[in-house]
Amino acid sequence: MQDEERYQQGMAVRRAVLGDAHVDRTVENLTPLNEEFQHFITRYAWGDIWSRPGLDRHTRSMITIAMLIALNREAELKMHLNAAFNNGVTREELKELIMHSALYCGLPAANATLHLAQQVFDQRDADGK
Fold it and tell me: E strands within the chain?
């Protein structure tokens, strides 16, 4: 696949997973500093890895969230907690994932994620989602 094809495929997957509003904000905020990086993410993270046939998006969301909990990457974690719903992940599954992460990532990481997840849930409820 050529870079432009990978970019287009990546943009379609990125929109499906993260939502049009998030991707539109990202595109609107492109700068000379971040433009190449954003194209790289779209081509390789979304057009290559997230497009592979070996795992469905639900599973990829769960794996991504678990890794972000372990790495303590709050901004990305919040984004992927919210995006997980676009991939069919339920609140109950997120709760179980966070509980499971307490064993492998530590109680502080799981506790911080519970608070972050509650913020996401509250915002989704307020937005009627």
Answer: none
Distance CA 129, CA 120 (A): 11
* Dihedral over Cα of 104, 16, 44, 9: its sign: positive
Which pTM does this prediction carry?
Answer: 0.93
Structure tokens belonging to residue 3: 């870079």
Q: 15: Cβ–Cβ under 8 A, 6 or more apart, which residues? A: 23
Residue 84: name the closest of 22, 5, 6 by CA. 22
Give the H/E segment covering residue 112: helix 107-126
Quick one: 8 exposed, middle or buried, by C-beta within 10 A (0-12, 13-18, 19+)? middle
- Spatial separation of the C-alpha atoms in residues 92 and 54, rounded to whole Å: 24
Q: What span, in angstroms and rounded, lies between the C-alpha atoms of 61 and 94?
A: 10
**pLDDT tens-digit readout, 56-93:** 999 999 999 999 999 999 999 999 999 999 999 999 99
